[in-house]
Design brief:
alpha+beta, three-stranded antiparallel beta sheet, disordered N terminus
């Protein structure tokens, strides 16, 4: 049987080898043009051959097989088929090569039955092929979905990474700015103390030099009139108020242990202990409507005065046992807060 593409392709006539074939002989088989078909049908020996147009030959439901001769008995055409032996035989073979008792049928009928089975197989294969095509199409769609989803998730990862990096940069800038401000204040405060101490030291040394000059170079008439002034200058120098240098508030970076920040936070090396903080100016008695100004000093666990990093917040316990926030003026530069409470 011809392939499906023969009807659409131009086949050369096998008779004249010049014209395009329009027919095919089922028995030869041979492709022929219109002129050669007439010649084919005029020859007595092959006049009985079945000649069909190429399209009819391809689309024929009952395809007539060409005459095939027996390979053992050369002059005998194959005319029968044994279903039990599953072999095609000529009339002589039915006695010599096949068991005579086996049922046999016309080879064309058998071929038609087989063709019907083959068509059913082809239909099944087509159905299966369509199913596979659908599965392939679905798989290709899923493949595209996977690639698209992967691309989307990669974009999310990149965007999130950029967000985290940006947040890190902002946190870095904020932490460095806070460190600069906090240590700048501490440095400025200590530098002011150094200048004040330097002035006091110069005053002490100046008075000391003045007195030494009087002792070594002054006579009685020079020393006696200046005694009062020397005593006054000495007293002023000795009684000069000298403030001890306050403890320096060291700011330390602590890496983050929670999800609120990425890098970390800044904390003082000396944390405020609430139980050790002191409250001054507490009146012994207040009447309703009176107010009091209190002074809160922040201290660490050892009772040492420290400057807190956090803003000082003050609460007062009311007679009913509840707590109430009160206004407090926070002076973190000296570690004290003044607050006012009205009864």
């Amino acid at each position: 049987m011809m392939s499906e593409g023969i009807s659409s392709a131009k086949v050369l006539c096998e008779g004249c080898q010049e014209n395009v074939a329009t027919h095919r002989c089922v028995d030869c088989p041979q492709f022929s043009c219109d002129n050669c078909v007439k010649v084919h049908r005029s020859i007595p020996a092959i006049r009985s051959h079945h000649i069909l147009s190429i399209d009819a030959h391809q689309d024929a439901e009952d395809f007539v097989q060409p005459v095939v001769y027996c390979s053992i008995h050369n002059n005998n055409p194959i005319i029968l088929y044994c279903d039990i032996c599953q072999m095609s035989v000529c009339e002589t073979c039915t006695f010599e090569c096949c068991i005579p008792e086996h049922a046999k049928r016309d080879i064309q009928i058998a071929a038609n039955d087989f063709q019907k089975q083959i068509r059913e197989m082809i239909d099944e294969l087509k159905v299966k092929g369509r199913g596979l095509d659908e599965n392939k199409t679905l798989a290709e769609q899923i493949c595209c979905q996977i690639k698209d989803k992967q691309s989307q998730e990669e974009q999310k990862v990149r965007r999130r990474t950029e967000e985290i990096i940006e947040k890190l940069r902002k946190e870095e800038e904020q932490l460095l700015e806070e460190l600069n401000q906090d240590y700048g204040k501490e440095l400025k405060r200590v530098e002011v103390e150094i200048k004040e101490l330097d002035l006091q030291i110069r005053s002490i040394k100046s008075t000391q030099i003045y007195l030494q000059i009087l002792i070594h170079h002054g006579n009685a008439m020079e020393i006696l009139p200046t005694l009062k002034d020397a005593a006054s200058r000495t007293k002023d120098a000795i009684t000069m108020e000298t403030k001890p240098t306050q403890s320096v508030r060291m700011i330390e970076f602590q890496a983050s242990t929670n999800n609120s920040v990425i890098l970390g936070t800044l904390k003082t090396s000396e944390e405020v202990c609430l139980s050790n903080c002191t409250v001054e100016n507490v009146p012994k008695r207040l009447w309703k409507g009176d107010s009091a100004n209190l002074l809160v000093t922040t201290r660490d666990s050892s009772g040492k005065h420290v400057i807190p990093r956090e803003k000082v917040k003050v609460k007062v316990k009311k007679p009913d046992g509840s707590w109430e926030d009160i206004w407090a003026k926070d002076n973190r530069e000296i570690g004290r807060a003044s607050c006012r409470e009205r009864v």
